[in-house]
Each structure stands twice: as structure tokens, then as C-alpha cells.
Amino acid sequence: MLGSNGVVELDVVRKTSAVAIKPDDEWAEIGAMDVFGGNLYLLDKGRGQVYRYTAAPGGFGPRKDWLGRGVAPDFSQVVGMMIDGNIWILTKTGKVELYSQGTGRAIELTGLDTPLLNPEAIYTDEDSQHVYILDRGNKRVVVFTKEGMYEAQYKWEGIADVTDMVVSEKEKKILLLSGSIIYYLELHQ
Fold first, then answer.
1. Which of 130, 159, 164, 182 sits a CA distance of 20 to 30 A from 94?
2. Residues of the chain above pLDDT 90, percent
3. Residue 5: what pLDDT?
């Protein structure tokens, strides 16, 4: 987890914690974090950069800029980031961007009956066939193909209070975090 001490690794079995990555003077405003392939990725909203920390024996290697030279996106509105080999970015305006090999492009979301309102989180991973967006303003989770085509939506009044989600297509569940409670919705795909 990310805190004032940097990135802290929690061991829930031993009930211990340790600083995995100390705060960096180059960080402006870290707005999102994800892990992929054992590497840690931090999105810096203030500098418009994604930092990669490569897994190393006993921790992580030094910070490396992941975005290509000359790529300078505006990450000031980012609310979520997920990695499936590519980096998926969601902004509070509902814009989705896909970054691959250091460069990015907007993903046009098509077929949606109602525009996203107050999107809170995005989810996909290397095992998922879809991208999921937590649309708190419309009290739903919206499902898109990775090309941006609308597939389905799951509505529930309680989504207005949900702050994060995880999806398992294998288990056919959307797990929703609301305060200290985890709810789930069954996937019908």
C-alpha cells in the first residue's frame, strides 16, 4: 500500500509491514499503483509519468520512467490504473486511455446507453477478456471489450458507496469494496 512512508508491503500472515520503496524526491503526486509481472508501477499525476520498479532480490530496483521519451500525458484527472501487459488509465471524466510500449491512445467506449458519471475504478488483468468500470454516479459496473465495445452493465443501489472493485471472470464474480465490507455481484457472461 502507498502511504507517507512510501510503498509499504504488508505480510498478513505474520502481521508485519516493511517499507518496500521509500518516497522519492522526484515524485510529485502518486495517484495510482499496480503490480504486474512482479514489478511495481506508480502513476505520478503531477509529472505525467508512470514509474516502474523492477523486482529484485530482497525488494525492488531503482525507479525507471515507463512512458517513452516525449510522451507527456495529462494525468491530473486519473482515478484508476490497471495493468494486463498494457496500462489502462481511467479519468474522472470517463476517458479511458491505453498505454502500450511507452505510448498511449484513447479508447473510445461505444454502445453505452448512459454516459459514465463519477467513475471510480477500472479493472482488467492478463486473464480477463473485458474491462470493467465502476460507475458510481449511475450505480453500476459497466463491462466493455478491450476494444471499447459495450458488453453489459450490472446495476445495484449500493454501488453509490463502493470505492474499489476486483473481478474474477473465472469465478464469475465482481467483488465490490464498500467501507470495510466486500459485496459481490455474479457475472452472467
1. 182
2. 80
3. 86
Other C-beta atoms closer than 10 Å to the C-beta of 127 total: 10
DSSP conformation class of 94:
S
The tens digit of pLDDT for each residue in 60-73 reads 999 999 998 888 89
Architecture of domain 27-186: 6 Propeller (2.120)
Provide the grid cell at 13: 500472515
Q: What three-state secondary structure class fits 141?
A: strand
Query: pTM for the complete prediction?
Result: 0.91
E strand map for the chain: 2-3, 6-11, 16-21, 30-36, 39-44, 49-56, 59-65, 78-83, 87-91, 96-100, 103-107, 119-123, 130-135, 140-145, 150-155, 164-168, 173-178, 181-186
185 phi-psi bin (left φ>0, alpha ψ -120 to 50, beta other): beta
**What is the rounded (10 degree) CA torsion for 137, 85, 70, 147?**
-50
According to DSSP, the residues that pair with 154 across neighbouring strands are: 141
Cα 124 from chain centroid (whole Å): 8
List, in sequence order, every residue forming a beta bridge with 56; answer none if it has no partner. 59
The neighbouring-strand residues paired with 34 are 41
